[in-house]
Design goal:
alpha/beta, 4-stranded parallel sheet, two-stranded antiparallel ribbon
Length: 213
């Protein structure tokens, strides 16, 4: 027998779940079938939410998940997209109370309509996420473009810091030890030990140094 399960979430223990729970009950979800989390939307590893996908209470094909709004699943647009796709692929209907189109009653013969709605929803969210990324990137570029230049590099008037990657810094005795290593007088391991560098840092500096030779 298919189940109708509600899910509500707030970000902190101080926030109240009552409004979401009331909305789920008004839709027809039984209170004993409402799962709740008090946890950040940045992380999907929440106890109640995880139980919807793993274990005894796992939602299966034919079940329905009811939420107040999409951001109750996650605050991350990519995660929302992935979660909606997961439920769709597993035959689980997602009803979003703030999105009336997801609440349409469809009989089994016309289930393709729900698939169409889910596909549109996923596509719209994907487009929004992509547009947000492009907008943020454009704003960053615009901000950098108007920064003043000092010593050939742009810097922030507010923080006084330069933009871009910091210049590569070499240990004081780099030249001597590098050439010993290159001449096979010492091993790479010994060179790292003498310079006090980890392998990743050592080889990155060596590669950069070699490109300047």
């Amino acid at each position: 027998m298919s189940r109708i399960v509600g899910y509500a979430r707030v970000s902190s223990k101080e926030q109240n779940l009552s409004r979401q729970i009331e909305a789920l009950k008004n839709y027809g979800v039984q209170e004993e079938n409402i799962l709740t989390d008090k946890a950040s939307g940045k992380d999907l590893n929440r106890p109640a939410y995880t139980s919807l996908k793993v274990g005894f209470g796992k939602l299966v094909k034919g079940d329905t998940l009811v939420i107040k709004s999409l951001d109750r699943l996650s605050r991350n647009k990519n995660d929302i997209q992935d979660e909606l796709r997961y439920f769709q692929q597993n035959g689980i209907r997602v009803v979003v109370l703030d999105l009336p189109t997801t609440m349409i009653s469809i009989d089994e013969k016309n289930s393709w309509v729900l698939d169409m709605i889910s596909n549109i929803l996923i596509e719209v969210i994907s487009s929004i996420a992509e547009q947000e990324r492009l907008t943020i990137k454009a704003r960053q570029a615009e901000g950098i473009a108007v920064m003043p230049v000092r010593n050939g590099k742009r810097y922030s008037r507010k923080t006084g810091r330069y933009t871009g990657r910091p210049r590569t810094k070499y240990p004081d005795d780099w030249d001597e030890i590098y050439f010993k290593w290159q001449s096979k007088v010492i091993s790479a391991t010994k060179a790292m030990e003498l310079l006090g560098l980890k392998p990743n840092t050592f080889y990155r500096l060596a590669s950069h140094y070699k490109s300047k030779e």
